[in-house]
Amino acid sequence: MKTFPMFLKMQDRHVVIVGGGEQAAQKARLMLKTEAEIVLLSHELDEELRNLVATGRAHHDTDAPGVESFAGAALVFIATGCVGLDAALHALAKEAGALVNVVDQPDLCDAYTPSIVDRDPVVVAIGTEGNAPVLGRMIKTQVEELLEPRLGDMARLAGRLREAVTHHVAPEARRGFWRWMFSGEPRRLHARGSEHRAARLLKQAIAAGQDPQARLNGTVSLVGAGPGDADLLTLRAVQRLQEADIIFVAPGIDPALLEQARRDAERVHLPVPDGALAWPRERLEQRISTEARHGRSVVYLLAETPSMAQLEPFEALDDEGILVELVPGAMAAVPASAGGGSGQSSATF
Fold it and tell me: Where is the Tetrapyrrole methylase domain (predicted)?
């Protein structure tokens, strides 16, 4: 990545938009979604921008622009429509130390305006580093279809419940509780307009102090990397990597595969079997079993397709209520007899 995506706090900050026409209005519409103070720097404003000033949602600065015009701005948008003037204003804004976006001039941009899917406070930003804004908008349309319109309301509900969850749900059960809230019955009810039923269900689970889908212990998933390409991983393999608390990474795993894993999952990179630092098989099996007994979701990521023989050392965990499963990592790596050709079979004791 040449750019790093990050969300900026805009409360009690101001944004300067230079220009008074349609391009400036487009940036103003975007900033109206935030709590930032909008400063319009232009002698003339179109009707839309004049209305923003009249309603107090923006301030109009008619002074000749100087370095001081941009001092302290969280962002500066330059949209005069004149290439030479935009470049001169860019120089002034940079001298003031501002973060600058010059419309239609990527080389003069410190930051690019993404395509945004707005489910406030859930916000998805899609960027192409200025290379393909049309593609960004196409992806935005696809994401819009995936996220229900009322998802932001549910996120706010989660915020209101967070303190109660902290007080009543055990730390080891909280991640599962939130996963259930956003992927289980509460979200389905909320999406259908049954907000009160969803809230009641959540409060009942909080009062019980547990993750409604929790098992007594953790899980052990032996996940195969298959051919090794990240885009060939099965959906189930990706899900296990996303859910994992700890991942044991066998030698030979392409680092790109770990991009599919939860960012805060603990990762244990195993040395080559015949190396000086190699783990004895018994040590690895004991460590995996111990982590699962402590309630953690464990993934053992193998370069090859995992076999039933590799599951045998963990058979005893089944008697303790621990789920042990085999997850082939890619369809190309799954024998034709496994899983009815689905490529997502699992063997559970």
Answer: 220-338
